[in-house]
Design goal:
This protein has 4 helices and 10 strands. It is an alpha+beta fold and 182 residues long. The longest helix has 16 residues.
Length: 182
């Protein structure tokens, strides 16, 4: 088995430490969606890098869609620039916290998902509803907190980690477990 894995989505949160007038943002800026009756946050879609941000009136921001921390930083900078257009100056450098990192790739081996569902703990497998097997490593933090989608062709998706090193460690743990079961 050989692992190939790349980050496909980083979900981060931050605070701009400044109140944000969402009504004004929605009225002034393109690529925004704001429907306070349904959800208290404003959605801002950023074209480049292709990300989306949820912005709350408290100044809290959740940004998703970036594939690297560099792209996260670019997205946050664009949000701050957008706020300048409505005369809101953010003077701090926002502290960014990774909430979730999603990676996808392959372990380079076919998998018998029926067999794995029977022999591994912490799995969910309903092939009539979804072709992948959900496998939780079952730890409380770090790489052990990872959840995988496993497909019969050896493709995998890993979620629940907070850094690239945690993803790599989680995939190594997964491969060690799978070697005992195939």
């Amino acid at each position: 088995m050989k692992k190939e894995i790349e980050v496909v989505n980083i979900v981060v949160s931050t605070s701009l430490e400044h109140d944000v007038p969402l009504e004004k943002m929605a009225a002034t800026l393109p690529n925004t969606e704001y429907n306070p009756e349904q959800f208290p946050g404003l959605v801002l879609r950023i074209k480049e890098p292709k990300t989306s941000a949820l912005i709350f009136s408290s100044g809290k921001v959740v940004c998703t869609g970036a594939r690297s921390m560099e792209k996260v930083d670019e997205s946050i900078a664009k949000i701050i620039k957008a706020l300048e257009k409505i005369n809101i100056k953010i003077t701090i450098k926002p502290e960014i916290t990774i909430q979730n990192l999603v990676a996808s790739g392959s372990i380079g081996a076919d998998l018998n998902l029926n067999n794995l569902a029977m022999t591994l703990e912490n799995t969910e497998y309903e092939p009539e509803q979804f072709p992948g097997l959900v496998f939780k490593l079952g730890g409380k933090e770090g790489a052990r907190k990872a959840t995988f989608l496993l497909f019969s062709n050896g493709k995998i998706v890993c979620t629940g980690t907070k850094s690239e090193s945690e993803v790599s460690e989680a995939v190594d743990i997964l491969i060690d477990i799978l070697k005992k079961h195939i």
